[in-house]
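Field reference: sequence -> structure
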Amino acid sequence: MSSSSDWDHAEAQALVAAPRAEVAALFWDIAAWHAIWLKIDDVDVLYDDGAHQEFVMGVQRDGRREDVRTIRYRRRDGAIDFFSPLPPPTMVSHNGSWLFEVDPAQPDSCRVSARRNYQLIGALGETRTQFVDRRRDYRQQFEKRLQAILDCFVDHFATAMPVVSEVKGMTVCTEHIRIECTLEEIDAFLADVHNLPSWTGFFRSVGRPVGDRFEVKTAMGTTIRTRIERGDRGRYVISSLVGDCEERAELVVAAAASSVEVSFTVNVLPALADHAAGGGEFGAVDGVAVQQGRMRDELERLRAALTAEATVRAAAAHHDR
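Structure field:
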């Protein structure tokens, strides 16, 4: 029988060669983990609003499958806290965090720390001494496993593979960019629906308001209703009603010295895949590489638009002197 004094702690760290916002975004995208940590059998994401997340993950440990249910919370700085209402079968309780820190000397890298707190279940007939010894051995193995997970993420970013996952039938792609501007400048730009056509290829023109949305003409020749939802922790969600379905694209912005890091995630609906199959310009079936390339182009256009706005402001300020 375990007691309140039987809490154990495990830690591991790794330096990842990628910006903090990019690394933190991938650690949050739990559905993408199966392509990185190969001991995962499957992940069922039950809820995710960008700040709160619930999922059930099936993993392999010591040749056996474990199903673990976890609830996570993303802090303003990108750090992730969690607890497991259904912990691994060897544990009474399990919680922890993923922390992401930037070294000013290496602004394009990120140190990731894994911290775990847990209580092991005492075995029937096990003496106190035996339990203490088993806890020591378990902690050593647990820290090796945490380090192995972190090393897989290090390898993933070293090979610069695109981040792609699937959630409930949708293709989910993520890209990143660093832009020389302030948080205030990018906030004013991203929060305005009328700026979408200047940097995205999908939205062509913005029309009249309808309720809390705007009618928007798309590259597919259709008119949809779109709004931008501004959340906390630098989140912006582009929400579009396509028929009876909602398509969502998310941008997460974080300060980085004199610039900002932008993470751009797009959920592609099957409706767009059907359109592409018929020869349309925009859709999922023309391949992940095409989707990733399109997103990179859009982020470059976003950077160019913000740079142009900054140039205009500077010229206006100089003229007023």
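Note: The first helix runs from residue 20 to 28.
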